[in-house]
Amino acid sequence: MASNSKIASLRPRNVQKSYKLAFGAPAPQRSLLKKSSGVAKQSRGKKAMKFTPTDSLLFTTNGPRLGPGAWCSICRDGDDVVICTTCKVNSICTLCIEFNFEDPETENFECPACFIKRSPHKSYRWRLNSRGAGRENLPKVITTPLAIIAIHLQGMTDRGSVIVYHHLAEWLQGNLVLVDLTFNFDDPNNQFESNLDTMLESFETGDFKEWTRFLVVITTHSDPETGYLHIAPGHTASAPVDELFNFMFPERFHNILKRSPTNILSLLSCGALSNQPESREMIKQISSTNLFDKVLCFSQRNLQTAFTHKFLMDLALNQFVFDRMGITNTLRDHQALGAHTDIILFRPGIIQTFRWTHPGARPMGHDTSSSLQCPKCSRLNTISPKFLEMDSTRLRCSSSDCRWEETYCRPTHFNWCQNESPRNKEERGAWLYSEEKEGNNKSMDVA
Ligand SMILES: [Zn+2]
Ligand SMILES: [Zn+2]
Ligand SMILES: [Zn+2]
């Protein structure tokens, strides 16, 4: 028999490295400001985009510019539409409301959303023919120009932003632009600052000066110990998130972002970024700048970003196109993301953590392997859940010689999203949330 040490040095033949090697890893802290201050700025007059292996700036936009009336707000289709004279945003087609073009009142058309705000108890002058294509009672389709700005570490792909772009382009056409900006602050010749200048100029006075809404996605690794973000490929350097933020978002960028109160910042990095207290505090400060309505992070220690793509697609569609500002409606459709990670939402003055629960897979939000394999008899697929009451789920092994069981309770700081709880084990799952408010160090219950 081989000795233990010899066994340890042997790798069975069916062991190999997985495709995904690029988890966050420790990277020495390096000052980003110092590093880049020595870099010569490209002359401002030089507009040509430069593509180098280390960094790039790329704009993607396609299709016609849209004005008001691009879509019927109700059926989300169109043809002849009448624009609301009050909001000048909503427009309704001649199938959804039978307009009489000879009626002079058509020229003073007011959409249902505006009307109900002004006179909630009066009868509406126009007759609706259709329930509409959405879930909401007063649907909207907003086509105000939107920019998706994807800033990512050189060498890391940002497919998520590309997918979000294509998802929303259907609705926004040429009112949508995707800006792809890479960085590598370890390269003394890096062009990040001049690329950023070029981008900001395009929003200030250039082709995209009419753009008023922004989804910014920053993709990079984080150091699992400090939560600092990698500023160069190959785990060679990291910096605190606030330092990176201050560098990437100069005053000029602030002024552009201030055009809208509904921007989103998504920080696509492993969980250490929002889990490490120092780093979490910095994200709180970033959120308190009020430049973003939502700052999103994910708690998973080794985040598989592929799980976040569909969620961001729907969140962006709901928020920017359909004007549905809450996050919980979107979460409901994204249980697969919840099985992978909590979602941490930073808003000015408040941090919300959303955690998925499932009676079988994640009883009361507890991440346990017990539902797959009995901890006592080690059999597979013998565990069945039973929902006991509002606040607990029991897992029990069905093997007659085992009968292991354990009860999981709702964590005290968490409450059910939208007061929904799974009522029985057939239920698909639900979301819990906790809130941490400004001035409280501890999570608190919200009744
Ligand atoms: Zn319609
Ligand atoms: Zn209106
Ligand atoms: Zn068992």
UniProtKB/TrEMBL annotation:
This is Uncharacterized protein. The lineage of its organism: Eukaryota, Fungi, Dikarya, Basidiomycota, Agaricomycotina. InterPro entries: Znf_FYVE_PHD, Znf_RING/FYVE/PHD. Gene3D superfamilies: Zinc/RING finger domain, C3HC4 (zinc finger).
